[in-house]
Design brief:
Largest sheet: 5 strands, mixed
Number of helices: 2
Oligomer: single chain
Radius of gyration: 13 Å
Number of strands: 5
Order of helices and strands: EEHEEEH
Length: 120
Amino acid sequence: MSTRAQVRFATREEGVTFSEHPNAIHAQFYVHSGGYPEGLGVEIAKSVNEYGKICNWEIESLDARHGDLEYIYYIWQAPGKSTWISIFEGMGNGLDFECIFVGEPQKLIDKYKTNTNYDG
């Protein structure tokens, strides 16, 4: 079975917590398989740490919704501030998600790298 995920980009704003879904997102990507934190999460964090960007992904319409997601990722950015990542895990019905991670890219790598080959 594939581990589906959606990666969304949001602007860091005052009064918006990283552990809640933001109202405004600017771009999103759908990942059909390998969306678990030990894979996709570490890949995102590694790309942000090493390259400052995420390569080889296609932008999806902001209106696209998928009922089969296991994870939703948010990448939070603002000028002059560090990048943060939030991960939400689906609760099995495709509608409810629980926040399972909030932090900077290196924190994500440190938490999930035990199940990967990433040496960063």
